[in-house]
Amino acid sequence: MVMANVGWHLSLGATEVHVYLDDPEDSVADQLEVVDRVNVIRCDDAHWDRMTVSPTGTRQTRRQGVNATDAYRRTKTDWMIHLDADEFLMPERPIGQLVAEYARKGRFLRIPPWERTYLTSSAPQSLFEGGFRLPYVGKLKDDQNTFWRATPFLTKGLTGHSVGKALVPTGKDWRIGIHSPREGERRLLGDYVPEIALLHFDGMTPLHWMLKVLRYAHLPREVVEGMLGGHRREQVLMALRRSQSHARLLQFHNRLKVTDGGLRARLEARDMFVDAPFEPAEQIAAHLGYTPDLSVDGFDALLRERASDLLDRLK
């Protein structure tokens, strides 16, 4: 997933890619270090000492912000965006052109999210298959009329975040948060760029999503409450109740992540659905020199190796 993300953004013209690896022993570091324009930072004890942050006593979101600000201080580019490995930019035109048109002094650019949704409950074959849901603009009752029983587990119709990410001008005395920059304690204002979408694969596979919420479910309650929005907390609580059954947890996943005919019609009526396939393999291969395994089976095989502790809890 990391290699695919890097290859895709290099294909869009990124002049620098800074990759921060939570696991300093992750083997992907060796693959990344030979890729031109990529800077790999292994988040080992020496790194966290330099950041003056405790890796065990600091929330994940805080660590991400610290790393994003570190990249912001390092970069020699004019603009920068912080992305997770499951987020891919999709511009309608070259990003440089769009930045030149939308940028205003002292403001950042807000990139709105499109969240991947499956079109059927059948097992997917490719990491990127499906369509995309867009966040709604409306009142809660509209959300309930659209999503019915899934409403408590969503924010503006999405399972992940609905605010998007910030494309920020560099050279400022700003701190970079996950979604927005700050100047001191002041949250800065941004302008939406409708011609760039942030494709968010909140769960690269059904198994990936299930393990993601289960991992949250086994953190201390106070940590979860500090990290997660209300809808994600509801997902975690429901996942915990269903965590003894793989079938029941998959059923819950499908309730939230599958857009069937009826729901699709309701979303299309509100301009909240895009059926635009994302097929990045060719561009990724052009910049990496090979095509990573983009299959669900390959990805899940790695998950099973790395998350056997969580999988043991599923029957």
From TrEMBL:
Superkingdom to which the source organism belongs: Bacteria
Name of the protein: Glycosyl transferase family 2
The species this protein was found in: Donghicola eburneus
